[in-house]
Amino acid sequence: MSYGVSRPVRALAVPAVVALLAAGCTAEPTSSGSTTPKRGGTLTIATDTDPGCLDPQQSPAAAALLTGRGVVDSLVAQDPTGGALVPWLAESWTVDQRATAFTFKLRTGATFSDGSPVDAAAVKANFDRIVDPATKSLLAAGLLAGYTGTTVSDERTVVVRFGQPNAGFLQAASTAFLGLQAPASFAAGPASTCRAVVGSGPFTVADYVPQQQVVLARRAGYRWAPKFAAHQDDAYLEKVVVTIASDNGVRSGSLRSGQVDAAGAVSPRDAAALDQDGFPVHKREQAGIAYSLFVNSAKEPWNDVALRRAVSRAIDPALIVKTLYQDRYAPAGSVLTPTTPDYVATAQPASAAEAARLLDAAGWVAGPGGIRSKNGQRLSLRWSYVAPAREQRDLLAQLVQQQLKAVGVEVVLEPAPVGDVIAKQSKGDWEMSDISFLRADADVMRTVLQSSAGGRPPVVADQALARDLAAGAATTEPEARRNSYHEAQQRIADQALAIPVYNPTYLLAVNKSVRGAGFDAQGLPQFYDTWVDR
Amino acid sequence: MWRTRPGDRSGIRWRMLRRRLLSAVPVLLGVVTVAFGIVHMIPGDPVQIMLGTGGAFVDPEREAVLRHELRLDRPLPDQYLAFLAALLRGDLGKSLQTGEPVTALVAEAAGPSLALAGTALVLGLLLGAGGAVLGELTRSRLLRAMLSRLPVLAMALPAYWVATLLLQVFSFRLGLVPALGSTGPGATVLPAVTLALPLAGVVAHVLGSGLRTADRESYVLMARAKGATRARVVLRHMLRNTAVPVVTLSGTTVGSLLGGGVVAETIFGRPGLGRLIVNALQNHDYPVLQGVAAFLGITMVVISLIVDVAYTYLDPRVVSAAVWK
């Protein structure tokens, strides 16, 4: 679930994902010491990004999920182990044949922290609010694409309808982006929920100082955690303080000096040293689109699949992750990451020789400076990427440049501010681009990689792929979905429509008193089951 | 216009203030106009950035709706006039990102920024002036040589490096102050030192060379001849005479301390105007950028007024000049 959005774009705005609170989470067993959870205490975690707006219905930032997940519950929950969708605020649901009408039966007894009930009217108020242009929802509204309305059948039953099949909606409904908030809190306008989200989750927003910290306080009387959670009643922690420290060194230094209990978004470089010094580093590959490169197949000469295949074979993800990420991130095996449901491995081993053979066969021969050309045209790719880049993606671009140069393909690197990059891409004026995107559902390929409207960057205009993705979106039958999505991934690999490089991975370092630290389905830290042993 | 008695400086000060306040109006108009122009010249489009970072792709329909919602579909001159009209009412508009009033965002960020800039200014002046005076008074050649070279070093140190070093030593190793946050005086010390060092360097440099020049002036010889001690000559006579450029410098520095503290703010996890600007810049949040520019413009006008008034106390010639105009 969840889309923390790590697009080229998000580079700064949402660098790295965030830590997430609460429900929807597995607890990893941690080291030695007491094994009976203790109640109370404060967990302080340093994270890298300020959410800007805390309301996940408005903000696309993964940082908004960090705090939002603990505060809002969703209709359904996604099990971090295996990705199955299980009851949460809805105790059961049915979907029609075409995946256009979703009927949810709500559980009884759940309330928002303002005391109002989580009922059918509240569900309708939430979804209607998300699609209202005045809310300026940036991501949540996209998840409800094609939404035609919610019908309240009775106090505990709602039907959510779409104009076209939207099988991905169930998983989307498990994310904090579509999490339910108290309808009364909408009255004061979107700006007010940016500061204080009111949900039915195990925590409430106690304080938010932008650019500095978010304080969550435990809510008494929480009794509706998803089944897979390690416990069922109130959260163990009395308080969670999320402090914002964008500098890697400051986060790890604060952890070492005991000023914080946990450091999120740890850089691979710091991870080994922290591990050695007794600060366990928890790691989880995030679900969604792997960090991938795209060659614009709508542009000459890159409409030739042989050239795209050559580029794909020339890039060596294994060497890249070893050099840049000390193998803490894994090389990608498909355009989806392995933690995404319906993932299938499609990657072929890198081979400069094979790349060279493909290029030779296509008639591109090495000219001056080793760069190939054909009929006087140089084999060159312009790559405009967002700077400043996160996760050392600027260095990654240079490695890719070297690896492609070795087979005679020139890459011209054009680091540019977010605005420039998006402006160019939305005009279709791009040759090479890169993204990663957080969401634990294979439907992410349809929403992110494919645009019917000829919009955003890697527009994958491939008929066969479009059919596979549409088929996946039109059925909630697991077997049929899996088949469609396996085919889609194979098609992407075969046509070299995307070149997956690495699996974005969340590294969470904690001190020894932190227990039960774990991750939710999309790979963000959760704290509902977390406790401190001191 | 020799209407005021020579001794009546306060009347002259008032008239000077009034004249400066009037001239501040076109200056402010210029500042907000330039700010408006510049933010709209930045390549890229806020709506595309919002949708591009958030959604899967920019759906033209949603783009149009959002653009209308944010009133970005109106012609630029209309937007400019609406901006000016709202500004006159004291309304800086709403953030494109969060919909919060810009005045509230600026006010919220200005508090910690003012505290930080104020502390840094005081620290910088004390360190800089102290260094310059010590360099003038000391008999040790070594110390004098060191004190005359240190300012250049202090100016050259990158803020990022200084901040990281200070954190490593004083927070992570010695545990004297918290690394993050803006609560309590402890949290202000390190970021203030980070900002104060280059300022101290400039102050020491300017004041030091001023003092060395003043040393050759006849009034110094006169004072010495009348039996004043070296310390008294430096502190009472020379310092006052060389203080004018330092005051000017302090005035102009406050602006950069207020808006330019982004490195210190980011590393030390403090809210502030610097981060507000950078964040707004990344998201092309026009109203916030314009609001901060307007705020900084007003602040600079007020500070330059204070500086002008300070001149009249430091240097009687300033008052005479004002009188003769």
Task: Describe this entry's structure for a reader.
The complex is a heterodimer of chains A (534) and B (325). In chain A, 27% of the residues lie in helices and 22% in strands. Chain A contains 16 helices and 25 strands. The longest helix of chain A is centred in the C-terminal third of the chain and has 17 residues, at 478-494. Chain B folds into 2 domains: 1-97 and 284-325, no CATH class; 111-282, MetI-like fold (Orthogonal Bundle). Chain B is 78% helix and 0% strand. Chain B is built from 14 helices and no strands. Chain B has helices spanning 9-41, 46-54, 60-69, 76-88, 102-137, 141-156, 159-173, 186-214, 218-225, 230-259, 262-267, 273-282, 286-314, 316-324. The model of chain B has no long low-confidence stretch (mean pLDDT 83). At the A-B interface, helix 1, helix 6, helix 7 and helix 13 of A face helix 2, helix 3, helix 5, helix 7 and helix 11 of B.
Key terms:
A: 534 residues; alpha+beta; Dipeptide-binding Protein, domain 3; disordered N terminus; B: 325 residues; mainly alpha; MetI-like fold; 2 domains; flat; signal (chain A)
* Structural classification of chain B: mainly alpha
- Computed over alpha carbons, the radius of gyration of chain A is 23 Å
Q: What is the level 1 CATH name of the largest domain in chain A?
A: Alpha Beta
Work out the helicity level of chain B: over 70%
User: Low-confidence parts of chain A lasting 5 or more residues at pLDDT below 50?
Assistant: 1-32, 452-458
Transmembrane segments (chain B): 21-42, 114-138, 150-169, 189-208, 246-268, 288-311
Main location (chain B): membrane
Family (chain B): Belongs to the binding-protein-dependent transport system permease family.
InterPro entries (chain B): BPD_transp_1_N, MetI-like, MetI-like_sf
